[in-house]
Amino acid sequence: MKILLLGEQPLGFSSQDCHQHSDIESLLDELQINHCIVVNLAEPQQSVVLKQLRAHELAYLVPIFYAVEANAESQVLADGNFDEQAQLSCSTYLERLARLHPTLQSQTNRLISFLWLLPQRRISPFYDATKWYYRYPLLECWQEQSHSAWLNSLEKEAVLSKAELIDRVRQCKSCKSSTLNYVETCPSCNSIDVSLYSALHCFTCGHVASQAEFQQNSALVCPNCQTQLRHIGVDYDRPIENHRCNSCSQLFIDGEVRANCHSCGTSNRLEELSEELWHAYRLAERGELWAQSGKQTSLMPEGLGEPVSSEHFRWLLGWQNQLAQRHQQEHLLLALHFSNLQQLYSELPSSTVFAQLDEFFERFQNLIRQTDIVCRWNQDLLMFLLPNFAPEHSKVLEAKLLSLAEEQTDNPLELSVRFRQIPNSELAEQAEQWLLNLVAELRQ
């Protein structure tokens, strides 16, 4: 892989290893999709350049590394330090680039392509200390606003998934600002003018006052009854109320903590604060399928016979199992595993493999009924729910499936087939484990 260096040549680099550039314009003129970039600039210039590169129509995809040092924002924008691990990342990038579908153009497709090409990539938040809030620098390069809404939408569609919880941020109930000052206040009058209060309690007469009032010539003497206090716990003790309000003179144990907003001035009780969670996101399985096929699989089918999501399929399976138990019906679950799919991916372009899968799927749809439920469980596994299907017909269907796979003379698909009758008591009790056992059996 060709390395394009922006900035001074660091120690350990030779002129044969990289093509050095002094400005970003000349680097972008030479850049191709199968290159990588190493940036060696001082901060904050380095983070500014990284933003420009990630906003570029081609440079946003390629591996970008920093040579020596990087601030927190640059670390979020780049793919890490240029070391031995970076060399492995470049090899992974080239391998996955050959499998990336070429028609991905929209903002969402740009995000999916970026995450797909290097599995360790994340969309991570960065805390901007100058503005007192988190933001997503990578998304700012591709989209101007509504970052959280966009990420939440893609997560609900199972295109992205949460990789790590970065922070929990408390916000003002009024203006949603997180610039809060936590201060202890008097529980009686809410004044912030409170202080520690050291008091004594005389056992002889019960008088309570500040310790200063008991001090007489280096001894402790009750100002009320003149008893000399020698032993704590015998002559006197200290009250548990160790705070005093200087506004209303109230004594108390612990004050009420309030969060005063520096943006709008609202005083918030702690239970009134709203909370925002900031996560790092990675590509989910539906996003990986999208990157390779160029097709978005919807959570809900557009019509009868269209594939449903795995989440919807699980729900339908449990629902049909209960109906079958109640009404003495017989259904059939069919699971298909393409056992040589990974081998085909290594030998053929991903677009060719997906074309073979689509061709097989279209032929198979002619064998089943429009009311049968179809689910692309993952890249190498299909599941079908066949309502009111007689078990004795399963062998005939299996033979037709195997013949369909063998009809593809160029790199034929190798199939493993399993049938399960419904209703099933194990499905009713442990649906998730029942399905996992079926998948494990297919992949043996």
TrEMBL record:
The keyword ATP-binding does not apply. Its EC number is 2.7.7.65. Residues 321-407 form the GGDEF domain. GO terms for molecular function: diguanylate cyclase activity. Keywords: Nucleotidyltransferase, Transferase. The keyword Nucleotidyltransferase applies. It is an enzyme of class 2 (transferase). Residues 104-283 form the Thaumarchaeal output domain. InterPro entries: GGDEF_dom, Rev_trsase/Diguanyl_cyclase, TackOD1. This is Diguanylate cyclase. It comes from Agarivorans aestuarii. The lineage of its organism: Bacteria, Pseudomonadati, Pseudomonadota, Gammaproteobacteria, Alteromonadales.
